[in-house]
Amino acid sequence: MSIARVFPSPLAAKAPAPYVAATTGQRCEVKYWATETQAAALLNQARDHMDIDPYCLNGPQRNISVYLDSPRRSFFEMHRTGAVLRYKLRVRTYDNPEGPAFLEVKCKAKSITMKQRTTVTQALGRAVVSGRLEALAELPRTVALNDFVYLYHRHMAEPTLLVSAYRLAMASTGDGGMFRLTFDRDIRYQLPRSAELQGHPKALIPVDLTERSGRPDAKVLIEMKFVNAMPAWVSPAVGALKLQRTAFSKYVAAMGQNLAEGDYSRLPEDLDEREDD
């Protein structure tokens, strides 16, 4: 399912698709809450069937996403109300300040998720967050980029929230990585500051996971992403560990918490003064 088929884009143009992971595109996603003990047990079993993502060989990698939404927070409302068709629009970066940025569109229709991403420099990522989409004019016109630009303009998107997490990622072996397993910890958020992609470490607010999982010790979010079906070893492992299934969304949870708390007190200038505390 292509996002362009749901909302035909006047900018649509055909271009050769760059290499992407097997689970980037149309896929199914299943999520679970786990304790550290459960997560360690699942990781131990997964090592017999999967490889650690090359970027996580030295440990979990922090990903940071600047979520974009309409002035009326349409994407948030789609998820909050359980709409059949819903979107997320974001600019994602990782630990490396010299690494790339990714313009991402996620579209979910019932149980199927479509993820598209365009790789750009962090300078271009900052331009997008600041509303200067003309900076993308020289990039090749791919379906993924066209869909991002179309949805951005259609919804008059603006930076809404920055969400980060430490992620350990794994990919299945022998099948081209058709199954991915991720472990997310320390999920935090903050209001965006100008065109920053990394955020300010002293402004990051922990998402209250106990309220979402119902257990104070279940703080690991496990995500399973697959194209056709999960490997045979997964279901027995999930059953034996009694993992708790969830429909948790980091953006929706962080946005809901921010709206409930209304914490606007930690202003950038205050944080800068405490940089060396």
The structural class is: alpha+beta
General shape: globular
Mean pLDDT: 85
Task: Note the beta-strand portion.
Answer: 25-35%
CATH architectural arrangement: Alpha-Beta Barrel
What kind of sheet is the major sheet?
8 strands, antiparallel, barrel
- The radius of gyration is 19 Å
| Alpha plus pi helix count | 9
Q: Total number of β-strand segments? A: 11
Question: How many discrete domains?
Answer: 1
Terminal CA distance: 50 Å
What structural keywords apply?
single chain, 277 residues, alpha+beta, mRNA Triphosphatase Cet1, Chain A, 8-stranded antiparallel beta barrel, 9 helices, 31% strand, disordered N terminus, disordered C terminus
Overview of this protein structure:
This protein has helices spanning 3-6, 36-46, 74-80, 122-129, 143-154, 209-213, 234-241, 250-261, 268-273; strands at residues 26-34, 50-52, 61-69, 85-93, 101-109, 112-120, 158-172, 179-190, 205-206, 220-226, 244-246. The chain is of the alpha+beta class and 277 residues long. It has one domain (18-263): Alpha-Beta Barrel (mRNA Triphosphatase Cet1, Chain A), CATH 3.20.100. Strand 5 and strand 6 form a beta hairpin. Helix 2 runs antiparallel to helix 7 (234-241). The protein is globular and about 50 Å long.
Outline of the structure:
The protein has 277 residues and is an alpha+beta fold. Helix content is 26%, strand content 31%. It has one domain: Alpha-Beta Barrel (mRNA Triphosphatase Cet1, Chain A).
